[in-house]
Specification:
By secondary structure, this protein is α+β, with helices and mostly antiparallel strands. It is 54% helix and 11% strand. Helix 13 (364-376) runs parallel beside helix 15. The N and C termini lie far apart (77 Å).
Amino acid sequence: MPARLLEFDEFSLDCDRYELLRSGQPVKLEKIPMELLILLVTKDGCLVTRQEIIEHLWGTEVFVDTEHGINTAIRKIRNVLRDDPEQPRFVQTIPRKGYRFIATVKVIPRAPGNGNHNGIEFVSPETTPTQAEGHVPSPLPRSHYHLGRLLRKAALVLVGAIGIVVVLVGLNVRVRGRLFAHAGKPRIHSLAVLPLENLSGDPAQEYFADGMTDELITMLAKNVQFRVISRTSVMRYKNVRRPLREIAGELGADGILEGSIARRGNRVHVTAQLIHAASDTHVWAESYDRDLNDISSLQSEVAQTVARQAGATVSLPAKPEKPVNPEAYEAYLKGRYFANIRGPTVGKAAEYYQLAIEKEPTFALAYAGLAESQWRGEDFAAAKRSAEKALELDGTMGEPLATLAQIKAYNDWDFRGAEEDYKRAITLSPNYPPARQWYAQFLDWMGRLDEAMVQIEIGQQLDPLSLIMSTDRAEILLHMDKLDAAKVQIKKVLELNPAFETAPVVLGEIYEREGKYDAALAEYKEMIRLTGQRDDYEGVSVVIEARLRAEAGRKKEATQLLTRAEQLLAKRPPPEPCGQALASAYAALGDKNNAFMWLQRDYAVRWPDMITLKMDKTLDPLRSDPRFADLLKRVGFPQ
């Protein structure tokens, strides 16, 4: 089939050569955005659904953060096309559906063979065979060059003086000594475990490969002598063929563990290799064949070996000698798979954890996973029981302690007990990112901002691609009154993912602090739009608008809006109190009595959001009133 050149406006797109030109000049576009652009342009103006994009770019049976991937690719396409998403010339967003390429496209046929430069076959820089295998070409060994030098000097020996021979021998000894002195294994300070490749030939086994990856990360993360990048960040590189040195640079890691797993019935074959990224040095490689009954000891063995090869001198905790029921372990891995997707699959994760516990009643990891799923599903009493059971079975796990700390902080208002559990969780699992993030957020609400910043920065090192970490950091900066730095941080989040629903809240808070009330309202409404629950949040939206109007001095409008808001909120089913939001609006109006009445209602039902009272700037008009100090004391804030 003849090669095709596609032209639209000032651009031309060569699909076969993976080349985009603007007015005849090449434009740089990475592989994933380029593939998406080709897909959109070749669809003749038809809608391309998000599901079609996922299947085209990543396949049907793959777990990556596809939402983030699509949003990032679209953003990069719009950047190079200089396209405005609000008034697009090229890529039109169809809300909740997908995208459509709307520019007129001319198809320019070419004669076969004309797709090459001077008869040389074009190969995309991002898909060269070397890179496709995930390696950077290594230079020739240093000994190769020393050998050539010695041979040349040997020729001189044949025609020169014996004194030159002596000099050369001495030189050779010194050079060889330096080479051997540097031949030791490089020390690894930060490690990224890339997703194990599923070689089973069965896409349905992706959960098994992902689960094994998670477990290796969890085990290695218990070592305090090196930093282990979180699974949230490394999963972005699943099925991505790029040089390891680039991946390591993006993750801030100097060591990469990569490998594959193949399952055939009850037999499991695992290969793994540890690479020092900066020098492209293979530190260690091994393969394992085990029975599924022995899978937990296999993971422990691999983790222990990798830790030693990375230079750790402290051993990881040994796994329990009792093997885990294979059916229970398989259910547990499925639970982790669905837990990592989050959203509506949290309930599915809990079901699989429950199944694992039914088949293995002493399975501590399953109880830990169940506790977090129940907490995210807001079944706090059950989550507390599951976390305590996990710790009863295995007191070395930090994960259930972090979940317990969240429950104590937000539901029990036991701030002292929560902090003890956060600290112990971090001691037991120093590389567990949620513990760092949750503790940072807790310290933020307690007003201990410098300590909060330390924890969130450690969390970002562990999970460098996490948007929630970056959003929380922006909020801490906001509370530090560093508005410009907070704005830069949150806008970076929105550049990476314009649909990240918690980011507009922080940006709205920044605009509100700056007195840009219309801009703030737009961001708050964007958050509500992104949640997809406009009807449920209509009353909240009106409350926010009332507060902003009051802060702008438009008190008559604010009063009318508040009357309407209370009518709307009265129709909402419990338990969704909005007392703090209403109190903020009444505080802006100067009506302290109504403000404290609504805060008391939230206190009466022990609404978790009251943990934000101390740092909620919208309540500043109430702080001089003795009732506010009394409320802080009753909630449990340290005096």
